[in-house]
Fold this protein.
Amino acid sequence: MTGAVVTCQGLILEARRRFEAEGIPDAATDAKVLVSSLLGLSQTDLVLRGDQPVDDALLAVVEQAIVRRLAREPVHRILGKRDFYGLELGLSAGTLEPRPDTEVLVDAVLPHLRHIVEARGSAEVVDLGTGTGAIALALLAECPEARAIGVDISRDALATAARNAEHNGLAQRFEGRESIWFEQVPEKFDLIVSNPPYIRSDLLLTLDPEVQVFDPAAALDGGKDGLDAYRAIAEHALAHLHGHGLIGLEIGWDQREAVTQIFEKKGFSLVEGRKDLGGNDRVLVFAVGNS
């Protein structure tokens, strides 16, 4: 970075130029988010103060971050946090970065959760493979009568989810638990939610570096056909769900039929399917039997 790049806007333009030169997708957005976040500037600040000089200490911080992005580390991993459904969530090596498509799952199950609360006064949720706690915490934030257990095999993820619950004022209604799916979870729930690993093992090496290198493999690898996690959840879900309960799942774009068949064979019926922001199948909601 040259000494001439000393203003906020200048830093953003320089970062964009370098990202574009390396073929990084969405270079303009990444440059703006990365630099403005590191400098603590809002969109309004950029308009009002974008031409102000940046001191040398901050220049060094921004330069280090740009180098990390050029190495294909995602912007929000560099920043160490990401917004999800109105919550600020910290990230760690053992967690997936929550993405906007997963907000579709929250949108899909939230009305059902509220209906359960209206009928019963409270609701118990389990989030299988909770990672940052994104899904569970978003539901708790939107539904004060609910409580949630976030299950994960990663202690790093559970620690991150606990910090996120505390940061967002939800710690009293959230519990993290180390378990392989339901193995250490004897309770029954009103709602089971999960964004499980669903990528075929043979496709992992074809993923973008941002995912392949920086997301935990255990949260991506769905086995030979990408469906191992769905089979594991479906095998025991009925024993952990109240009769009025529901299951909400994120799926891969081409997995709607296969996942539906897996759950129908275990006594569930499809209540709703939703598409993501790109128009692909992304969320399925199941009920017990023909409910």
Q: What stands out?
A: The two ends are 61 Å apart (CA to CA). The mean pLDDT is 93. The longest strand covers residues 241-250. The chain has two domains: 8-71, 82-288.
